[in-house]
Amino acid sequence: MEGAEQNKKQYDAFELLYKDSIDNIRLYKQQQFTITNYAIALYVAIVALYDRFGKATDFEKGLLSSVSLVVLIVGTVLIFRFHCSMVGSRQRMAKIQESFDNTSKEALEAYDKPNHTSYRHNIGIAITLAGVLLLGALAVWWAIYRVAPNI
Fold it and tell me: What is the spatial distance between Cα 50 and Cα 148, in angstroms, rounded to a whole number?
């Protein structure tokens, strides 16, 4: 009786950890897109400020360009940190899966799937989001240095 109760507690603990990992992955992915959306909004605000200045000085252009560079760097770093956090959560899930019984393991291995614990898994999404941030920064710099403001 005592062994069954301990197995139940262990099963509950694994279930909790597994669900936590899934929730963390979902949160990290959502945060990546949120960061991208806010960065785009900041880029729009920078261009709007530049347009509002009328005839901006070189210092103001440099300041706005620097702010867009900071947005690019911070956004990209956060996107890739969340990607690494997702990999950590997937590695925790893989560790938990090792404790599954044979039937559950066979069900998990029923189809050929990529290695979810690799840092390369879904890296394309992080690279794409970082690329969007880079394109946004380039558009801001182009708007500041090439487009005449509306006077």
Answer: 10
The Cα–Cα gap between 57 and 52 comes to 12
Query: How far apart are alpha carbons 124 and 77 in whole angstroms?
Result: 15
147 vs 91: CA distance, rounded Å = 48
The CA-based angle 145-146-151, given to 5 degrees, is 90
Q: Which of 126, 128, 149, 127 is nearest to 46 (CA)?
A: 149
Q: Tokens 């690799």 correspond to what residue?
A: 118
82: its two tokens = 């969340």
Distance between CA atoms of residues 127 and 11, nearest Å = 37
Q: What is the mean pLDDT of each run of 10 residues along the chain (151 residues)?
A: 71 81 92 97 95 85 95 98 91 80 70 67 91 97 78 52
2, containing H or E segment: helix 2-53
Q: Give this prediction's pTM.
A: 0.80
